[in-house]
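Field reference: "sequence" (input) and "structure" (output). Example, Ribose-phosphate diphosphokinase:
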Amino acid sequence: MARDTGTYTAVYGFPESADAARRLAQVLDIPCHIAELHRFPDGESLVRLPEPVERAIVYRSLDRPNDKLVELTLAASVLRRQGATDLCLVAPYMAYMRQDAVFRPGEPVSQTVVGEWLGRCFDRFVCVEPHLHRTHTLDEVFVGRPSIALSGAAPIAAHLRAAGVAPGTVIIGPDEESAPLVEAVAGPLGLTGIVGRKERRGDRDVTVALPPDAPIHGRPVVIVDDVISSGETIFSCARAARVLGAERVQVYGVHALFSDIVAERFAAEGLGRPLSCDGVPHPSNALSLGGLIADAIKSFVSE
């Protein structure tokens, strides 16, 4: 049983994610304050936080994480010094989760390092599709800290339902890691879900194979994945679906990390514009996570 947190009294955002922080604060009906950042010529950061509060939600997605991690640490120190007794970090995209073991001699277990680092700064955590592999829950990352890992499936399913998704549509995930996302999107919509098999030879050298007997011929396909960065996984998956006779292919990603150049490739591949959730600010954002995250935060308060 977690200690009583009362009601969170403010959201703190950062300049690059100010809009999402304000949307979350609006759903929670509490004030939102945006940190002031200054970068010195040598690359060091200075963080200023207005309006000290007792219980704060700090909102920041950890894509391109290195400077952000330092700035979050500085922000937490300011809030603690000003008297904050409960700090909840909402990091829709949580960095350094994939390196959860030593794969080659001399490598760190980055997940443990970052988990211990942030666990010293914050009291509880909310993340979305945190890219866990052999680690089963966020509680194993942030030991001793209440943590919630949310699925991006509900906003994707809701968007498909609102758009009038065709009954014969097939939901495809490119690999076994995407299976929970596929099931959580396809199930509520009464659609067929299929998971491929991915062979990765490098960051940009990926092949996705789909079951040859998959019921795809003549049917629309929606590919879903937790992260879209280089796009190679999606491109390979889409080609495999077309070989099996997909009528058309649409793409949804929870976290969009891809560049404008990759966006042009999506268009060139006939995939249009992928749609993503708004945890990582990106031109492809079309699905709001605010309500989902707000419900998770309220569950902390009700404990």
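Residues 153-272 form a domain with the Rossmann fold fold (CATH 3.40.50.2020).
The CA atoms of residues 221 and 249 lie 5 Å apart.
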